[in-house]
Design a protein that fits this description.
384 residues, alpha/beta, TIM Barrel, 3-stranded parallel beta sheet, 15 strands
Amino acid sequence: MWVPPGRNNGAIWPVSLLTSMTLVIGLFAAAAEARSPPAKRDCSKPGAGLGVSRIIEVDASNGPLYGSISTRTKELEFLGPKEVVLTFDDGPMSWITKSILDTLDAFCTKATFFSVGRMALAYPDSVKDILKRGHTLGGHTWSHPLNMRRYSLAKAADQIERGFSAIALAAGQPIAPFFRFPGLSDSDPMLKHLQDRGIATFTVDVVSNDSYIRSPAHLANYTMGKLSRRGRGIMLFHDIKPVTAKALPNILRRLKTGGYKVVHLRSAAPLKPIAKYNADLTKILTKRLAKKKGGKNNLVPFYGAVAPEKPDAVINGTPLEVTKLIPPARERKATSKRLHKGTSRTATRAQDKKITKKRYKYRRIRKPRRRRYRPPPPSPSFWF
């Protein structure tokens, strides 16, 4: 028997209750849609997803430094208004990196991954997947030390070079000569080493703080708030954080609705790793691949391998503009206050006086503060 709306066996349902129930169901459905991964798109169609506006090809032979968060001498900003570069650090971590790669594919956009050497050897399939999907892969040291300025210059250089060699070995092909310092703790001697090796360094313009935010909604609001205040920049995320994978679809949707454009970085020439790390790292990777069926036969040497072809600059059915950056070489002087062991600092007489005065200010003996006299509390006026 059909029951009219608002009635149930003679009992009248309040219309306001039905309206509220419908609204709640709609809110739950919208929330579920926001949490669900975006569907795959056909990126050959014009206007599909967020896309990529242009490609920036960086010549790293002179060791340039890009990004605003650094006290060192930087190159000029290469991004225009409302242009962003998506970057992910610390990975790969297979189940999180795959989710991020799927989301980027769904929005037909590209990113740059700065991977850790140990993580790359632990998850070599994820490293290969990053390159297979057309993203750029750079280095983020071997074991991610938080403050490399405390290391000697030789130990810091070993962290950088061992990390690059491990990532290239796990990928089975050369990678980009792009590097990011853990915690952005750079120094002039380390930047001079990267310049001599022909490696570009990237810092950050917009930090998402996904290492400290647990709510995907809060992470999206925080990141977009910082981006809207700056208007452009290199964005920092981590592909080892579950909250990043959950918040990324929302962030990319808001980038598209906000009129932002994604710029993809790629290198003009591949990195040439140092061969002395090959033997040790090959043993580690062989043990890892041996755990998989037929893994030993999957090991591909990368030294002397042919560089991969550059990705086709056609996304959303239209050819992309390619901007080439060829920054000039610049002199690196060891003028930083925090030095590495075994290095010397060159400073002027005025700088020495300023540093000495600052040290004296904090080392001089200060007079103790005179405390105000406080009378003791009154004695009780009664006896027990």
